[in-house]
From TrEMBL:
This is Methionine ABC transporter ATP-binding protein. It comes from Planococcus glaciei. Residues 2-241 form the ABC transporter domain. Coiled coil: none annotated. The keyword Ribosomal protein does not apply.
């Protein structure tokens, strides 16, 4: 569906040249929700502008549904860009137009006749949950409602790809969740391919199928969300994953427990997918004469299934503890004895 091949973008700054996107190759399947995460300056915005044809690559290519966007010009480029739509952090609505008129705008530009426009706008208003607010002005809407208008407007001309540029960064956590749910809903209902850029790992965890981590213009890690959360490879990915799993609390608790119980072992267990629903600890204490103390735990849900971490203290003799750990490994639970 989307194919990036050896894509690079170099900017000439006053102080020399700067590689904002550096040799990126990846492909995104039709119907996928693909996340790109990185800190400020990593090259995410430049990459997304290359995707919608607003920037020309210095080298490499962007192909969407078989059409090379980066090599197209004039009428061809306009046609190719119709397949791609975008929503923004600050919504980019027309303030002097109502909800209905904002959503209608891209239809007007595309030359859709007035009679057809009305029906399409009402359909979109319904789809994004704004029924009853058609005649309100953007200034009368909450942030979440403004983004719903942005989404409806982006969908007006039936794009194949929706690009989301930090689309929830200006929203509070609850509103963020409702917009993310809407994106998942339209992805499923319309089979729309979604590419989003963000610096927030919870956005990736909640809705993406796969994730690419960007640093210094390069994609340094790429994989299925569940795999990346379970076993991040790069330092930067570990930091992003820690945003949504580790808490200050757990470190404090471990330190505290170490002082309270100098004996035994503190072990971090990592569960993935179906394992999160199995009574593995019950089996363990029935089988081995060890005591288990649960110190900290959480389960997170991704679009690809659940994963969880649990920190336990195991008390018993050294051979008993070793047997218990071997049992957990046999059950395919990843274990990490904490120092
Ligand atoms: N038009 C431009 N001219 C010169 N340098 C640019 C231009 N656009 C981006 N850059 C530089 O390219 C690098 C990548 O910027 P980019 O905006 O793509 O990163 P980002 O990951 O989106 O960060 P942010 O979230 O802060 O926008 C930065 O060092 C930036 O200063």
């Amino acid at each position: 569906m989307i194919e990036l091949k050896e894509l690079s973008k170099v900017f000439d700054t006053g102080k020399g040249s700067l590689k904002a996107v550096d040799d990126v190759s990846l492909s995104i399947s039709s119907g996928e929700i693909f996340g790109i995460i990185g800190y400020s300056g990593a090259g995410k915005s430049t990459l997304i502008r290359l995707l919608n044809g607003l920037e020309k690559p210095t080298s490499g290519s962007v192909t969407i549904s078989g059409q090379n966007i980066s090599a197209s010009k004039g009428q061809d480029l306009r046609k190719a860009r119709q397949k791609v739509s975008m929503i923004f952090q600050h919504f980019n609505l027309l303030w002097s137009r109502t909800v209905k008129e904002n959503i209608e705008f891209p239809l007007e530009i595309a030359g859709v006749p007035k009679s057809k426009r009305n029906a399409r706008v009402l359909e979109l208003v319904e789809l994004v949950g704004l029924a009853g607010r058609e005649n309100a002005y953007p200034s009368q809407l909450s942030g979440g409602q403004k983004q719903r208008v942005g989404i409806a407007r982006a969908l007006a001309n039936d794009p194949e790809v929706l690009l989301c540029d930090e689309a929830t960064s200006a929203l509070d956590p609850q509103t963020t969740d409702s917009i993310l749910e809407l994106l998942v809903d339209i992805n499923k209902r319309l089979g729309l391919t979604i590419v989003l850029i963000t610096h927030e790992m919870h956005v990736i965890r909640k809705i993406c199928h796969r994730v690419a981590v960007m640093e210094g213009g390069r994609v340094v890690e790429l994989g299925d969300v569940l795999t990346v959360f379970q076993a991040p490879q790069q330092e930067i990915t570990k930091r992003f994953v820690a945003q949504v799993t580790d808490t200050e609390d757990s470190n404090e608790t471990i330190k505290h427990l170490r002082e309270l119980y100098p004996t035994g072992e503190l072990v971090k267990l990592i569960f993935v997918g179906d394992q999160t629903e199995q009574p593995i600890l019950t089996k363990l204490i029935r089988k081995y004469p060890v005591d288990i103390n649960i110190v900290h735990g959480n389960i997170s849900h991704t679009q690809r299934g659940a994963y969880g971490t649990l920190i336990i203290q195991i008390k018993g003799t050294q051979p008993e503890i070793a047997q218990a750990l071997a049992f957990l490994n046999e059950e395919s639970i990843q274990t990490e004895v904490m120092a």
